[in-house]
Amino acid sequence: MRNELMTKFRSKAAIASLAAVAIGAGLFTAPAKAAPPVTITIWTFGDVIQRNLVAEYKALHPEVTLQIKKSDLDPLDGTNMVTACTSKTGPDIVATEVSYSGYWRSYPKCFQDLRQMKTTGEPTAGIPAGQSATDIAKNYLAWRWQQGVAFDGSVIGIPTDVGGLEVAYRSDLFKKAGLPTDRAAVAKLWPTWDAFIATGQKYNSKLTAAEKKAGTGFIDNAGTIYAAIMNQGTAKYYSNDGSETGKLIYATNPQVKLAWDTTIKATTAGIGTRIGQYTSDWNIGMNKGTFATILAPAWMMDYIKAQAPDTAGKWDIANMPGGGGNQGGTQLGIPSYAQNKQEAYDFLTWYLAPAQQLKVFKSYGLFPSASVLYSDPALVGFKDPFFNNAPVGQIYAAGVQKLKPIFEGKLQRAIDTAIGAGLGRVAAKKQTPAKSWAQVLSDLNKVVNN
Amino acid sequence: MSLVNERERKNKPLSPWKPKKISANRSSKKAAAFPGVKSLNGRWGYICVTPFVVMFAVFGLAPVLYSVYISFFKWDPLGASTFVGVRNFNLLLHDSDLWLAVRNTFSIWALSTFPQMLMAIGLANVLRNTRLRGKSFFRTILLVPNITSVIAITIVFSQLFGRDFGIINDILGWAGLGHHIDFIEGVIPSHIQIATMITWRWIGYNTLIFLASMLAIPNELFESSSVDGATKWQQFRFVTLPQLKNTITFVLIVGTIGGLQVFAEPQQLAADGGSSKQFLTLTLFLYNQAFVNNKYGYAAAIGIFITFIVLIISAVNFVITRKISNDGTS
């Protein structure tokens, strides 16, 4: 109700200012193309919309004001968007994290189909006029683009970054444990996940008794292996049977069993420290060398730099076991009840164009989803001194290109949560793997059928 | 709810809103423009309460009625919904997670309410001391935790309670009371962690309430008791505490209502309420069913279940409060 009032108020204000501009233009014969001022509202989280690019767009389009609203409690803004869509209101642009892609692909009615939009054109930024989402799709990583496509084929979101997933390791600790330190040799240690676990056991066997007592281990959290393996497959919990929702296959998909069994194997082999990611223990452990490896998406590199500045140069990046990986990423879309769709689309196509994605990668470490950049020397040649001058651009680009599109369904988040809890119970030694899996199935049965 | 309705119905004949009065007012417009006390209670009274009633109807009553309605559906806010009768309630009462959530909620409530109340009364008694320096300073900073963001509190406390490098585990280790206690995976340890956050946030507020009611105790009572030779402890036990009875009931009621709504603290520790749902509270259970599992009808049924729990507790509170106030008058 309040929103409606606000929108009415805003549109009245817009009309008033339009009238003012028209009068002004008539009276003073102002510069020929004085575009009317417009405010684009954006619902986002974290740093999806980068501040210096906002300033850059403001210079390009002085008439456009970007009003950015970040949410905290549920950082992905799932609930607000449901409310907005049911009450037929909403911002001009909304950011949705990939874990919500499966949900929103069932509700294309809440989003503007971006195939029907055309760019106004931005000659100075190299964006031609009249481009729809279909025209720009070729610039992006195919499986990543697919995460913003609804079941009926309409494009409801354009990808910002792609997480990627590679192994960040401490070369100093590897050296101490008698393991190779060169990133090519390290990657050869673990062509498969079983080899990765074996390497972990070898590392752990070299630890002193005191280190073992302090909880030191090979990888920060063995539970992270699960999601990594899931993303290396071709299907997760759903198969595409052509229906709106897809068919649930979590209980029978061999990829789920492989990921679960391998993670359990790593957990029971004790290669992980059981420290939860993004806890204070994790931040401290990163500095103290409590763990030697992290499965790290590209955006995590900035986090490691910020949390453990004293470990500069000791880190390096090696290829993932099994080849390639992903964790995280976001789409920007335009809700169907947006007020300024054209202006929003113009901003979107500019903001997510390869040139801008490259700027974001260089300054914030978010890896571009624009695959045309993967052969660009500016990206491929990018080396990070913090990570021992590893060619991170090249490593992550190679990794994300190995992945295949995966059909995501409505309950993917809920299923991930239930399985994650199951792995947690085994890691905390609360349940045996068999009992925990049985509980996962009974929990999921409730999620699906209740 | 039904108790309130009962009382309202009984009161109705006393209401000055009668057809006779209205016609009288209509006949003399001046009297209506400058209403007497009686019509102020009547027509103007209704006008004055209108804003509240409208707001309550729109933001309080309507959502409640709406959630009662959707609890009978398999509800999809964006798609098709199907009527399922009492299926949601039937499933809910057989859902082990519900009873787990009830257990967790009451455990956290007990761990946060009772120690907090004792500490708040103790603190208020200290602050009441007239010889204490910097009283206003202490009274002011007591409220700081209350205006701090829950998210910030959770971040700081989860660092303090860290399993491997947390300061509380360090202290417990030095004292020989435990080593690397996992304040997230353990049932009681995780409840203690959440209860500590709640206590820290609300203790200042409750202290001020106790302090206010302590300052309202007539000084004569203390003077005459000291003439009778009462010690400080005896004064506290036999003068202060009995006078605080009503305040204790109030704090208990408010604490209970708050205790049933504990949400942000466990949600921030782990959004799913822990790997074995060891700190899944009722409201977190509701939230996750609605917004993670997309079961809006089921979540509405949980909401109604919570309402029944609140009604039962309110009835118990009502009985206790009446008993106390009767004791006071007799």
Task: Walk me through this protein's architecture.
The complex is a heterodimer of chains A (450) and B (330). Chain A is 44% helix and 11% strand. Chain A has 20 helices and 11 strands. Chain A has a 5-stranded mixed sheet with strand order 2-1-3-11-4. In chain A, helix 2 links the parallel strand 1 and strand 2. Mean pLDDT of chain A is 87; it is low at 1-32. Chain B is mostly helical and 330 residues long. In chain B, strands 1-2 form a two-stranded antiparallel sheet. The longest helix of chain B is centred in the first third of the chain and has 34 residues, at 37-70. Mean pLDDT of chain B is 84; it is low at 1-34. Classes of the chains: A alpha/beta (450), B mainly alpha (330). The A-B interface holds A 1, 72-74, 78-79, 82, 85-86, 103, 106-107, 109-110, 214-215, 275-276, 279-281, 284-285, 290, 410-411, 413-414, 417, 420-425, 427-428, 430-431, 446-447, 450 and B 58, 77-79, 88, 91, 95, 97, 151, 158-159, 162-166, 180, 182, 184-185, 264, 267, 271-272, 274-277, 291-295, 298.
Largest interface comes to: A-B, 42 and 34 residues
Main sheet characteristics of chain A: 5 strands, mixed
Distance between the amino and carboxyl termini of chain B: 29 Å
Strand segment tally of chain A: 11
Secondary structure tally, helices of chain B: 16
| Number of distinct beta strands of chain B | 2
Radius of gyration of CA atoms of chain A, rounded to a whole number:
24 Å
Oligomer: heterodimer
Shape of chain A: globular
Main pleated sheet of chain B? 2 strands, antiparallel
| Spatial order of the strands forming the largest sheet of chain B | 1-2
Strand content of chain A: 5-15%
Q: Order of SSEs of chain B, N→C?
A: HHHHEEHHHHHHHHHHHH
